[in-house]
Amino acid sequence: MRGTSFLDIDLDCVLTLDRAGLSLRTRLPAGVAIPVKSAANENAAEDNLTIDRASISPALVDEARRAVSAVHLRLAGVDLITPDVNRSLAEAGGAVIEVNGAPGLHYHYLVADRARATKVAVPLLQTLLTARGGS
Fold this sequence. Notes:
single chain; alpha+beta; 2 domains; two-stranded antiparallel sheet; 4 helices
C-alpha cells in the first residue's frame, strides 16, 4: 500500500478517535474503516482520486487563482475542501484552507488510478521554461 507518510499517533489522532468513542487500544472488526485523523495528507494513495480539470467549475478555478493572487505568488498550490468541484466554493460551502508557495507536486502522482494521474510537472515545466519576463 503506497502512502504519503507513516501515520503519526499524535494529539489529532487521539482526539479523532476519542470523538468516535474509540481509543488506541480499540480493536475493530475486520473490514471496518474509520477516520483516525482530521489531516487529509496522511492517507493511502488508494484514497486519492484524479479529477479532470474539465469537470471543475471555472468559478472554483477562479477562486483558487484569487487566493494565490492575494498572497502575491506566481506559482502556488492551493489546498481546498469542497463537497462539489462542479460549483464555486461559496455555492458548495467549501473553503480554501491553505496556499502553498512550494506546492507538493508529488501528491498528484499518489493516486488510486496512476494511469489517470495528472502529470502536473510537465505543463508546469513547459510554462516556466517558455515564460517571458513579466509577472
